[in-house]
Amino acid sequence: MSDRHSLRQALTTHPWSDAVHDHDDRFHEECAVFGAWNVADSSAIAALALHALQHRGQEASGIVSYDGKKFSSHRGLGLVGDVFSDPRVMAGLPGPNAIGHNRYSTTGDTLLRNVQPLFAEFEFGGLAVAHNGNLTNANTLRRALVRRGCLFQSTTDSEVFIHLIAISLYATVEDRLIDALKQVQGAYSLVVLSQEALMGVRDPLGVRPLVLGKMPGAAANDASGWIFASESCGLDIIGAEFVRDVEPGELVIIDRDGIRSVRPFAPERPRFCVFEYIYFARPDSVLDGVPVYNARKKIGIELARESGVDADVVVPVPDSGVPSAMGFAQESGIPFELGIIRNHYVGRTFIEPTDQIRNLGVRMKHSTNKPVLDGKRVILVDDSIVRGTTSRKIVDMVRAAGAKEVHMRISSPPTRHSCFYGIDTPERSKLLAAQYDIEKMAELIGVDSLAFISFDGLYRALGHKGRDASQTRYCDACFTGDYPIPLVDHDTEFGPGTA
């Protein structure tokens, strides 16, 4: 048996690569948050914005509104268009103030009780919370809160905020929130709605994104309408003006008196998630002043400079590989072609999930454009390799379509570490790049050559001279293992240095 055959058989039969896990062979979105203050039809505006932010979470969606007298809430499992399709639902969410959330579960099961925004009645009135990210000390805090008599209604780490606010001895909602924030560790963008204010906050390192916008046609008193959203594309769809990014460690408070900023934390070097530029954010968003589409094209340009190869066509693995493949083709002079077509209407399989159907699952999402591939030397451009099972199947499809050679180029460095800050990644033992070197990975997925962008190439594409570990403004822990926020719960369970 050849070495290549042995390796490819290992990829097929190894328990961490069984076809049942193909849906896990991608980095999954974190979550989306949204908030509107003094905006006419705020719940309808929230639903539109959540639709634009659907790529950040497809498991569940929810909206909580406030009309000056009472809070109203609707949450459901499924896509935004399904959860809020009934006009009666929207009519039941009145008021000029609302927050919303799209969920992809990184902690907690996919159950209705885990769907956000979370809402609770406090002594000061109602409060709703929407959270994007992961708290790295949530379990530690949860155990302490349970010992104090707190009763948790969900299994999501976001509920920790609710209980910390509830037990705080401070008088105002703002101070109670700050008290809670100072006890948590992790990555978070948080939108909070009370009877008196809408608040948006990012963790001190700014790992997760949050932007501030202004809305024309405010609901009352000729005052401005204000918007919080995970990405700027959530502003564009509702006609809101982008104002700025909420800064790392900043708490922005919007109430009847206007808008103000509070800095409850000591300044730290920001560590924004670099994978937002590579994969997560929508291409038409602008994050931290950087247009995502431009960044991805520049990554492709750097990738071509570093790992060019003679070929006939550059083919993206849709959809995330498209801008980088365009940059690669532009720099290399090799034609860009859509050799793989993605079916955008595939959800969970409706067929009995036998082994045969699981093995055909990738064909439900992707099909080859044979005239583009037949007899060609093909460069496949993708954003990442996680487990490797999907990459192998796509390569097999391309070869079956007649490709003479298949070279894969990846617009991120090798993913060798798990994320603990809000991205759903497999444990490290299931990451292909954590187990094999690049040559072995190439054999496993069946390509003639495989190359990843270098750290310096990635950082050059984002406007820097290269990666300086002491100066980097990005979190790239999934590539480097350099975790900028302590992994309290993980280290308690597994011991330091085991991530």
Task: Note down, in words, how this protein is organized.
It comes from Acetobacter fallax. By secondary structure, this protein is of the alpha+beta class. 31% of the residues lie in helices and 24% in strands. The protein has 19 helices and 23 strands. The protein has a seven-stranded antiparallel sheet with strand order 3-2-4-1-10-9-11. A six-stranded antiparallel sheet has the order 5-6-7-8-12-13, covered by helices on one side. Residues 1-23 and 348-353 have low confidence and may be disordered.
**Shape summary:** globular
Total number of helices: 19
Distance between the termini: 35 Å
Q: How many DSSP-defined strands?
A: 23
Q: Give the strand order of the largest sheet, numbering strands 1, 2, ... along the chain.
A: 3-2-4-1-10-9-11
Radius of gyration: 23 Å
Strand content: 15-25%
Q: Tell me, rounded to a whole number, the average pLDDT.
A: 89
Class computed from helices, strands and strand pairing:
alpha+beta
Please describe the biggest sheet, giving its number of strands, its sense, and whether it closes into a barrel.
7 strands, antiparallel
Instruction: Give the % helix.
Output: 25-40%
Instruction: Report low-confidence residues grouped into runs of 5 or more.
Output: 1-23, 348-353
